[in-house]
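Re: that chain you flagged

S.,

Sorry for the slow reply, it's been a week of failed gels. I finally had a moment to sit down with the sequence you sent. For the record, here it is as I used it:
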Amino acid sequence: MQVQAVVESAVKEVRSILLGKEPQIRLALCCLFARGHLLIEDLPGMGKTTLSHALAAVLGLSWKRVQFTSDLLPADILGVSVFDTTTASFTFHPGPIFTQLLLADEINRAPPRTQSALLEAMAEGQVTVEGETRPLPQPFFVIATQNPVNQSGTYPLPESQLDRFLMRLELGYPHPAAERQMFERRHSATMEIRNPRQCITMEQLEMIRVAVSKVLASDNLIDYLQRLVAYTRQSPEFEVGLSPRGALALLDCAKTWAAMHNRSHVVPEDIQSVLAAVATHRLVPSGDYAGDGDALVDLLRRNVDVIGR
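Prediction finished late last night. Pasting the C-alpha cells below so you have them in one place:
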C-alpha cells in the first residue's frame, strides 16, 4: 500500500470541507496515525468542530461531541449506573466517551475534576467506573478544543493533562482567498454542501500504523533529537524542557511524518515539520524570557545544529 496516496486522498477530502488549512489537516492525521490525541487552541468559530467531524467521516469512525461547561460532571462523560426496578439491579449506561473519536469541545471551561475524567481514557484506552474497568472502542482518538486562557470562564489545563496530548494546533483566521470561497459557497443557492466521504478503512489505518512502526531512525538522527532535548533542559530561556515522554512523542511523530511521505527512514526535516505541534504546549519559558512556546521552538530551530558540529 502506498501510504502517501491514501493520505493525499484523505487530505483532499477534508480540505474540501475545511478550506485553506492543509498543514493543520496533515498534522491532525499524523497525530491520529501516531496513536496520540490532539489539542486545538483557538478562538470560537475557527473550524475546530468542522475538522473533527471531517476526520471522523474520512476514517469511518464513530463520533460524539461533549460540550464542556462549568457544571459538567465526570459521570456526564464516563457514564453512570442506574437502578432498574424490573430486574432489581444496577445497569451501566455508557457515557459519550465510549466512541472512536471524541470531541471534547471547550475543555478548559470545565473544572479540573471533570477534565481529569479523560486522563485514564487517553493514556490507557479504558475507563474505570464504580470499580469496574471497561475498554473503549478502538481506535480511540480525542480531539479537545480550548479557548485562549485570557477569556472569561476558563480553567487552565494542568501540565500533566497537557502532556497527554501528543500534538497541539492552532487553526487561525483563514487566508483571504479561502475565506472568499467560503462566502461564495454560503451565498450560492446552487452550491451543494456535502459530507466528506470515507477514504481510509480500518484495515488501511492499521496498515499505516504498521508502516510507521517499521520506519527507522539512524544514529545521527537520534543524536540530533538528543541535542534538541538537551537544549530545552540546559538553555536559560527554558523553565521546563522536554520530558522523556515528550522526546518520545517527537520521535514517534517524526516517524509517522516520514511514513506519510513514503519514506522508510526519518530525516531531520521530519522532526522539524512536527516540532512545533509536539513541543509548544510542553515547553515553559523562564521568568526572564519574554517569548512563548512558539518562540522557544524558533530558538530550537535556530540554535541546534542538525549536523552537530
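What I noticed first: The two ends are 39 Å apart (CA to CA).

Talk soon,
D.
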